[in-house]
Amino acid sequence: MEIWLKRSVAALVILLAGVSQAESQDNFAAKEQQIQQQLTQLDSLLAKANAKNLDVRKQQIAVQVGYLFLRFARWDHVHQDELRNVLKKTPQQILPPERVPEIAAAMPVAQLVETEKLLAAAIQSVRQIIRKPAARVTRNSWPPELKEAKISNGYYRTGGRPILPYSFFWLENSLSREFGQFKNAYIHPAQLKMVGSTPTISREQRQWFKSTLRQNSANQRVSYLFLGHNPPDFFRQPRTGRGTSQFIGYDIDNSQHINWWATLLDTHARDFVNYRNTAKICLMANEPHWFSTRNSWGTVNFSSATKQRFRTYLRVKYEKIETLNRWWRTDYRSFDAIDISFPLDERLRGTGKWYDWCRFNMDRVTHFFAQLKQQVKKTDRQFHVTIKLPSQLLAATSHDHGIDWHALAKVQDILGVDSAIDGWGGVGRFRKNRLDWQGSVFALDFYKSLFPNKLIFDSEWHGFSNIHWRDTSSDGYSLRAKLWLQHLHGLGMNQIWYWGRDKNGRPVSKNQEEFYRSICTSPAAMMSYLETMVDVNDNADVIEKLVSRKRSVALIYSEDSAIHDPGYLKNLLQVYTAAKLQGVGLRIIPLDQLLLDQKIDAASILIPPTKFVLTQHLPILKLATRGKNVAFVSTAGKNGNAFFERDVYGNPIKSKQLSWSKTAKRIDLANTGSEAKLQNFLGVGKFVLRDHDGTPINILQGASDDGKYIWVCNPYRETTKIFLKNQFHDFSGAVDILSQQTIGETMAMDGRNYVRILKIK
User: 751 near 714, Cβ under 8 Å?
Assistant: First the structure.
């Protein structure tokens, strides 16, 4: 085992336990009794505060978390053998097998220690609120009432005010009202049975579905319909993928499948819409992907129907086989002779064959979801459809996966995402002292740049853990930083991964390999998540102001280069990061979008290293950038990067097609002084926070268009000192609306001061 992993696991044991080795199971009963006393004391204090209509919502959450983890810790204490068996299923890079007994023994007391700390903090804060009631009057009811809320301009709203709903994936039904605001009802094709030649749903299956709806209705304010894709036998032929309930493993080019979906939706979804307190959301798929190459996490086998459809696609595009041969540099005698084998040979990258396949793969997937959406809308026009797209697909080194983010954003009514922000310690592959925010925030910026008025829903939010990593911090601050950072970039609704226990505390039977990474193993993380959702909802109107700021800088995105160039997204994200750290409003514009509107509504334009381009894009880009402040931003230093070097068929671009680019500025991020050049080019303004010498601080920030609010988030553990008063501006005396503290001439930010929202005088 690597030394860093050994050390991190050893540190984890101490951190998890929060106590010395001597403080083991023997003192469990004492800790349990102490927490019971704290809860009794806190209940009494809360009764006094509520009688005076004081704002003690967070302290009431502490009570709920306290009772919850008393039950959880008790189960872990009593069922050590079963707990060890569950923990043994954890991937060894997260929890080495030899550490399982020690971790299992430590968990019960560790959870009680964390619970004791958060209850002590709640008791102290309630006392302070009672002593100074004028400073704390209830601002909003909690949780927000969503029964009558409507989606408008990117958010759920009630009375015109934004609401940011939240919940837990696989939330236990009996805890729904206290710990979440929505829950799903699940249907999938395996519920269909073939009777003769007619697919039908059994009476027992329909009764099960209605029972699920009744449970949700009794405990939830909203629900959504989740379409799984676990196929029955008559769906499986041919089987193209893993074919589980998590992924689409059947042939989407078989037109009969949409008809079978129509049967399923027509029966089940009509039951669903009878429940008026449910949200009209239909999540059409979980993490869809159709990778074509060998080295991916979801390579599929493509059917003969798909290959034939590809030939038809090529026949329509090229009309004559001679034309295709000229562009592909091949010698096929007919379109019927075209053969394509999978996994795709990566040596085809940069050729017409690779490009046409990847574009076709995207088009057929988009067509499938458009058809599925049509069936959902036939059931009820009020359904808002969404698709859970992993943000890693947008930032992937290979775009052979069939997911066209731009096209699928048009299909969706609610923009779906499955994102993760790793970092700030923890154990696993991504063990860093900074947040890995770029990929997930880029996905949010991409969505908001294209469709600012659509709601974004992260239905599998991985802020606490994912398959490679688990946060082991006991203070919960990293969780708060991630939630704030994403909501400040347009996230409007989230569901955290995942609720790993039943009502008695026993680990749920599914996904037990992830139980150790469940938020139900960390009282501090649970409290942090719920407290932060109080804060973001209290400040939802300010968040909306900050999210809707004018995006004065455009970053050009090329799907064609993403298809061909494995280094494109890495370079793009480097340019994106450099611009984001200057505090500017950033808009991402796909070149495909220019084919539609032929304009760029931004004062400055950044073009990242873009080797491949569809030649039709070049004259439109020339027209759209005329009279604009344009910079080609490279990342490779002395050797430079390629800009518009080849077309999508691998042919060199003629220099005369790029004559317009000669007047653009050149900035190389690998060169000394590049940050100053970028700042100069962007003309960073008054509302950018700076260091003592006037240099913009190297952390994330933004401002509202009216200049009333500034937000700043430090993604690093290291402390950053910000000078609010210098030669460029004087923001000293601003109030941090989260802590209600007035800030002086300087403001220090570290891993605990995760985020500030300053209201300017």
Answer: yes
Q: How many CA atoms lie within 13 A of 396 on its CB side?
A: 24
The amino acid at residue 168 is F
What is the DSSP-derived secondary structure letter of residue 279? -
Put the strands of the sheet holding 182-187 in their side by side order.
182-187, 222-227, 281-286, 384-388
* Total-model pTM: 0.94
Give the mean pLDDT of the chain.
88
State whether residue 375 is helix, strand or coil. helix
Sequence-distant (≥ 6) Cβ neighbours of residue 113 within 8 angstroms: 17, 18, 19, 31
Angle between helices 523-538 and 57-78 (to 10 degrees): 160
DSSP H or E segment with residue 314 = helix 304-318
Name the range with the highest mean pLDDT among 42-46, 218-222, 223-227, 635-639: 42-46
Question: Quick check: helix, strand or coil at residue 711?
Answer: strand
CA 290 centroid distance within chain? 20
Task: Say how many residues make up the chain.
Answer: 761
Using alpha carbons, list the distances in angstroms from residue 574 to 190, 449, 567.
44, 18, 11
pLDDT of residue 141: 65
Query: Binning pLDDT at 50, 70 and 90, where does residue 134 land?
Result: low
Pick from 55, 131, 183: nearest CA to 535: 55
78, 36 Cβ separation under 8 angstroms: no
Q: Is the pLDDT of residue 303 over 70?
A: yes
Whether pLDDT at 616 is above 60: yes
- Rounded distance between C-alpha atoms, residue 78 and residue 502, angstroms: 16
Please give the Cα distance from 589 to 446 (Å, whole number). Answer: 8
Count CA within 13 A, CB hemisphere, residue 744. 3
Question: CA neighbours within 13 Å on the CB side: how many for 249?
Answer: 19
What CA–CA distance (Å, rounded) separates 292 from 362? Answer: 11
Listing DSSP states for 630-688 in one string gives EEEEE-SGGG---SS-B-TTSPBPPGGGGGGGGGSEEEETTSTTHHHHHHHHHT--TTS
Give the tens place of pLDDT for each residue, 325-337: 999 999 999 999 9
Single-letter code of the amino acid located at 498: Y
Least confident of 206-220, 340-354, 458-472, 598-612: 206-220
Across 448-518, the runs of DSSP E, i.e. the strands, are 456-461, 465-466, 469-470, 491-496
Look at residues 713, 702, 716 and name the one whose alpha carbon lies nearest to residue 747: 713
How far is residue 354 CA from its own chain's centroid?
Answer: 29
Region 550-554: mean pLDDT is: 94
Residue type, 604: S
| Angle, vertex CA 476, rays to CA 474 and CA 482, nearest 5 | 145
